[in-house]
Specification:
The chain is α/β, with parallel strands linked by helices and 256 residues long. It has one domain: Glycerol-3-phosphate (1)-acyltransferase (3-Layer(aba) Sandwich), CATH 3.40.1130. The chain is 42% helix and 15% strand. The chain is built from seven helices and nine strands; from the N terminus they run ααββαβαβαβαββββα. The strands form two sheets. It has a seven-stranded mixed sheet with strand order 1-9-6-2-5-3-4, with helices on both faces. The chain has a two-stranded antiparallel sheet with strand order 7-8. The radius of gyration is 18 Å and the shape is globular.
């Protein structure tokens, strides 16, 4: 069995004075764009509450944030997804940039799977409540199950969402072990699951170490995996398949 190790500083992002100062600028600029986008999304949804409005503001948020810090997102979509269909997008999770990256790279309108605690965050919590996102309460097993079933119904009714099966940020190229919760949600919904691979965001941003630099981030949106005929007993096999596909893209997608 291959033993996966965290990337070296040379492979990730090594510390310099410029990168620490650039991180401060990225936080200030990103916070400003988040505030503007959240307020714009809430106000727009008061007038017209449609997922297309939320998608417009999500794309604006991601593009304006990256424009101000010199980051470009290059994406490759392996197939043309039907925007009228519902999907569960499953992405690896390298750092805090992953959500605005997904807003730009994923071709269909979608909401986020958000923890209930985020609803209490000023401004952002209000934006989440007005968005088509799915709220999952993990504070108690019974509440978690009920919110998962409710989320599954929302997805079956036509709401695509994105999930991060690792459950936390990896800050490296290689995947962390997947958690079952995200796959239980996908199984509850019964819609195709689409792998999304964020290849190299960890090389440009590391919020824990307070480092950032401009550059290019590559993203691969894969082919849908049908869950038709699958049951909960098939979840380990599904987890393994998805992990293999994402890790293959991480290992083989050219980086600049």
């Amino acid at each position: 069995m291959d033993i996966q190790t965290a990337p070296s500083e040379a492979e990730g992002i090594s510390p310099t004075v410029f990168r620490r100062l650039f991180f401060l600028w990225a936080v200030v600029w990103g916070s400003l764009m988040t505030l503007i986008s959240a307020c714009g999304s809430v106000l727009s949804n008061l007038v017209v509450r449609r997922i297309g409005v939320f998608r417009w503001w999500s794309i604006f948020w991601g593009r304006s944030m990256f424009l101000g810090v010199g980051i470009r997102v290059k994406y490759h979509r392996k197939v043309d997804l039907d925007p009228s269909r519902t999907y569960v997008f499953a992405s690896n999770h390298q750092n805090a940039l992953d959500i605005p990256i997904a807003a730009i790279a994923v071709p269909c309108p979608f909401g986020y799977v958000a923890k209930a605690a985020l609803e209490r965050v000023p401004v952002l919590g209000l934006a989440i409540r007005f968005s088509p996102s799915v709220i999952v309460d993990q504070s108690h097993p019974r509440r978690s199950l009920a919110s998962m079933q409710r989320a599954g119904r929302q997805i079956r009714q036509g709401l695509s969402v994105i999930i991060f099966p690792e459950g936390k940020r990896s800050y490296q190229r290689d995947l962390l072990p997947f958690k079952k919760g995200a796959f239980l949600l996908a199984m509850e919904a019964g819609v195709p699951i689409v792998p999304v691979t964020i290849v190299d965001a960890y090389r440009l941003f590391h919020e824990k170490r307070r480092l950032a630099r401009p550059g290019i981030i590559h993203v691969v949106v894969g082919e849908p995996i049908s869950l038709e005929g699958m049951t909960r007993r098939d979840i380990p096999e599904l987890m393994d398949r998805l992990a293999r596909e994402i890790q293959s893209e991480l290992d083989n997608t050219p980086r600049e």
